[in-house]
Design a protein that fits this description.
Layout: H1 2-6, E1 10-14, E2 23-24, E3 26-31, E4 42-43, H2 46-56, E5 62-64, H3 75-79, E6 84-90, E7 98-104, H4 113-152, E8 157-161, E9 166-169, H5 171-177, H6 188-194, H7 200-213, E10 217-224, E11 230-241, E12 247-256, H8 258-276, E13 280-284, E14 290-293, H9 295-301, H10 305-308, H11 323-336, E15 338-346, E16 352-363, E17 369-378, H12 380-394, H13 404-421, E18 424-432, H14 435-442, H15 444-460, E19 467-472, E20 475-483, H16 486-501, E21 504-506, E22 509-511, E23 515-522, H17 529-545, E24 550-553, H18 556-575, E25 581-590, E26 595-607, E27 611-613, H19 615-618
Parallel strand pairs: 23-24
Antiparallel strand pairs: 1-3, 1-7, 2-4, 5-6, 6-7, 8-9, 8-12, 10-11, 11-12, 13-14, 13-17, 15-16, 16-17, 18-20, 18-23, 19-20, 21-22, 25-26, 26-27
Length: 620
């Protein structure tokens, strides 16, 4: 890539870049076919040392081209017939520095500032990569030293003399296998016999493969004790070879990791559960800085682990709570070790949301809190469902108006207040005249739209403090508080009649309605909710009897009429069964022909208790 980008003839690495060695040699290079190359070390002249030293003293690329003169007597220039060269020292943190370079042989090239800058950046990147590689190698070396230290520590060691086929076990190995040295002969076959039957092939294959590859091996497997107990062990083995490459000795350690394995399995299972559970989880240190979150935390809050690790959970605080709320929360955590309750938090986008949260203190052996775990769930949907259910429980789903339950509650409250403050309250009962005709002729969808529009008109005709509710069907009931005189209610009633008599434009239909309105007053017409509603209903029926499209106040005489109507309706249900109806025929006489042309049938009702009842009494 460097050859092509810089259109040079050769790119190379020199190691070490040391002016004290007296020679130099490239350890890696790429070149075009015509470029010269030498595999042998070259002597380093003072001018070459000057080139190397200048590179070591700078942190950027150094060039020699027609614009930058070469040092005299340069071995590099003469040996490779170099016309232009650019190089940079790669000063690693471990070991001697390297030298990265490119050059042109066929013709001179003037390096541009952009090329110098790019080459410098490449050198910096290679230096970083080199540091990582050397650090990794150093780490691997330290790991090997640690493994050797563990082997010498006799966790449970064994030594197999492959030449004489002698296996030696430490006392810890015997104890691990549950055997006494005097009663058990240490052999490889005896060892394999103790390995769990399901793991024997794997263990044997691991050892054979290590001999073949001449590499140490680590393996975790199970041991099956004579009493049926299963142990987990971690085994390490290294084999030594003679000059001919034949294995002569294997040494190894065996560590009982049964407890560790159980803990790891439990931790792994817990980690899987925590990571995949629907509730968010966040763990903080003793200073309450976040050290770990799970996937649900990101899904609920919008914050990723990179954004919150090391920060305080305060970043999620909303402004829904006073500072004292959090003081009491932590007071309970420090005192009882746990707090649980509803809390309002804030998402990354600033949106507040309710959560059900549990904050737990994780204490050390001294009882000091070293970690804090918060588990919370977003209960926004539950809140919305509760609000929706509460709304539906107290409101009419079609019009959104309060229903009978909410109206009665508000009426009871209004009557209590009116009683204390000696004020008047009005209950207005509204029934839409001949609404049933619309439902029967145009269908319920049109009827529902009419009801929604009627509800809107009624609501718009009232004050904000007044209550309008739908009882069902085409019946509405209103609560008007702080009435000074009955005439004020009459004004409201007229306003309602006017609003409801306006044409209803529903879909392609032009509909005309009216209403019958009944009014009862507290405390003239009753001092309880049921009484006032019943009396307003009675007044409404009086309005219908008076021709509809009007309003009527309740009077005591209307109560008597209502009772009479109830008695009449009850008797009417049984009149047909008791054969109380009579037909009277009234002939129709033609003056032109002087003949009877037809007869009009007239129904009459003769009730044993109520007497002879005319049709205008029992036919609406």
């Amino acid at each position: 890539m460097i050859l092509e980008h810089f259109t040079c003839d050769r790119a190379w690495l020199i190691f070490p870049c040391d002016v004290k060695t007296g020679t130099f040699r490239s350890v890696y290079e790429v070149k075009r076919p015509l470029a010269l190359k030498t595999e042998t070390p070259l002597p380093m002249t003072p001018s070459d040392a000057e080139i190397f030293q200048k590179a070591l003293e700078t942190d950027h690329a150094v060039k020699y081209d027609p614009e930058t003169p070469w040092p005299k007597n340069s071995t590099i220039k003469e040996t490779f017939n170099i016309q232009s060269i650019m190089h940079m020292a790669l000063k690693s943190k471990i070991g001697a520095p390297w030298l990265l370079g490119i050059h042109h042989c066929t013709e001179a090239h003037v390096f541009t500032p952009e090329e110098i800058q790019l080459f410098t950046r490449i050198g910096q990147c290679l230096t970083e990569t080199l540091n990582n590689l050397l650090s990794h190698q150093e780490l691997e070396k330290n790991r090997a030293s640690l493994a050797e230290a563990q082997r010498i520590a006799h966790i449970g060691s064994w030594d197999l003399d492959l030449v004489h086929n002698v296996l030696t076990w430490s006392d810890q190995i015997y104890r691990l296998f549950g055997q006494e040295p005097q009663q058990f002969e240490a052999t490889y076959e005896a060892f394999v016999e103790k390995v769990h039957p399901e793991d024997r092939e794997e263990v044997n294959s691991a050892y054979i493969q290590s001999l073949k590859d001449k590499n140490p091996y680590n393996i975790v497997h199970r041991l099956l004790m004579e009493d049926g107990v299963v142990k987990y062990v971690k085994e390490w083995c290294e084999t030594f070879y003679d000059l001919s490459g034949n294995p002569i000795r294997s040494i190894g350690t065996v560590q009982d990791i049964t407890d560790q394995k159980l803990v790891e399995d439990q931790l792994r299972q817990s980690a899987v559960i925590v990571e995949n559970m629907a509730d968010a989880a966040v763990i903080t240190d003793e200073n309450n800085n976040i050290i770990q979150i799970n996937r649900a935390y990101t899904e609920i809050t919008g914050y990723t682990s990179e954004e919150v690790i090391g920060t305080n959970p305060k970043l999620m605080r909303s402004e829904e709570h006073e500072p004292s709320f959090y003081v009491n929360l932590w007071k309970e955590v420090f005192g009882k070790g746990i707090w649980q309750g509803e809390i309002w938090s804030k998402r990354k986008n600033g949106e507040p949301f309710p959560a059900w949260s549990t904050v737990t203190s994780v204490q050390n052996s001294e009882g000091k809190g070293v970690n804090y775990v918060q588990v919370f769930s977003d209960i926004s949907s539950i809140k919305r469902s509760q609000e929706k259910l509460d709304f539906l429980a107290h409101h009419d789903p079609l019009t959104g108006l309060p229903n009978r339950i909410l109206f009665n509650d508000r009426l009871d409250h209004a009557l209590q207040q009116a009683k204390r403050e000696q004020k008047k309250v009005a209950v207005i009962f509204i029934d839409l005249d001949r609404f049933k005709t619309i439902n029967d002729s145009l269908g319920h969808p049109i009827g529902d739209l009419v009801l929604q529009e009627a509800a809107r008109r009624i609501r718009d005709s009232l004050r904000a403090a007044d209550t309008v509710a739908r009882l069902g069907g085409d019946e509405f009931i209103l609560l008007i508080e702080n009435i000074k005189k009955p005439q004020d209610v009459a004004v409201v009633a007229k306003k309602l009649l006017t609003a409801l008599s306006q044409v209803f434009l529903v879909k392609e239909h032009e509909l005309h309605l009216s209403a019958s309105v009944g009014i009862s007053l507290y405390s003239n017409d009753g001092d309880g909710s049921e009484t006032l509603i019943r009396n307003a209903d009675t007044a409404m029926y009086r309005a219908k009897e008076e021709g509809r499209n009007n309003f009527q106040f309740y009077t005591s005489s209307l109560t008597m009429a209502a009772c009479e109507r109830l008695t009449l309706q009850t008797a009417l249900h049984h009149a047909l069964q008791k054969d109380e109806f009579l037909l009277h025929y009234q002939p129709q006489y033609s003056l032109k022909t002087e003949e009877i042309t037809a007869a009009e049938a007239l129904i009459r009702w003769n009730n044993p208790e109520l007497g002879f009842i005319t049709p205008d009494k029992f036919i609406p």
